[in-house]
């Protein structure tokens, strides 16, 4: 029985009825010139050229054009969805990068606060890289003591006399 079904599927002029449960098949001699196949069992109409239920109110050429338009529309929708997905990925990456930069900036600020002291005059952070406690601000040229943070002469001279350059 399977070989008969296989043989029918391979036959050029054979069409199965598309009605659920019908199971009837037809040999159609009209070919694509007369594409409507009407089932002798249930009366359902099938398109011989497209092997689908008959596309009412459309010729085969109109059906082809409608299918091509649907395919183009689906391709455009897929392209738009892909572009939207890419835009969302870029937006997510930008947000991730911004969060990383913010974290790095916070860590940098913490490091600056840890290793520097503000100039008592202009408040920019200053680091002391070597032993002398006498600091001259590179921005406003103020002279101050690294230990106590006051302008020279400082208040901590009892511990170590200020070194005046």
TrEMBL record:
<dbReference type="Pfam" id="PF22191">
    <property type="entry name" value="IBR_1"/>
</dbReference>
<keyword id="KW-0863">Zinc-finger</keyword>
<dbReference type="InterPro" id="IPR044066">
    <property type="entry name" value="TRIAD_supradom"/>
</dbReference>
<dbReference type="InterPro" id="IPR031127">
    <property type="entry name" value="E3_UB_ligase_RBR"/>
</dbReference>
<dbReference type="GO" id="GO:0016567">
    <property type="term" value="P:protein ubiquitination"/>
</dbReference>
<keyword id="KW-0175">Coiled coil</keyword>
<feature type="coiled-coil region">
    <location>
        <begin position="71"/>
        <end position="107"/>
    </location>
</feature>
<dbReference type="Pfam" id="PF01485">
    <property type="entry name" value="IBR"/>
</dbReference>
<dbReference type="GO" id="GO:0061630">
    <property type="term" value="F:ubiquitin protein ligase activity"/>
</dbReference>
<keyword id="KW-0862">Zinc</keyword>
<feature type="domain" description="RING-type">
    <location>
        <begin position="1"/>
        <end position="165"/>
    </location>
</feature>
<keyword id="KW-0808">Transferase</keyword>
<protein>
    <recommendedName>
        <fullName>RBR-type E3 ubiquitin transferase</fullName>
        <ecNumber>2.3.2.31</ecNumber>
    </recommendedName>
</protein>
<dbReference type="GO" id="GO:0008270">
    <property type="term" value="F:zinc ion binding"/>
</dbReference>
<keyword id="KW-0479">Metal-binding</keyword>
<keyword id="KW-0833">Ubl conjugation pathway</keyword>
<dbReference type="InterPro" id="IPR002867">
    <property type="entry name" value="IBR_dom"/>
</dbReference>
<keyword id="KW-0677">Repeat</keyword>
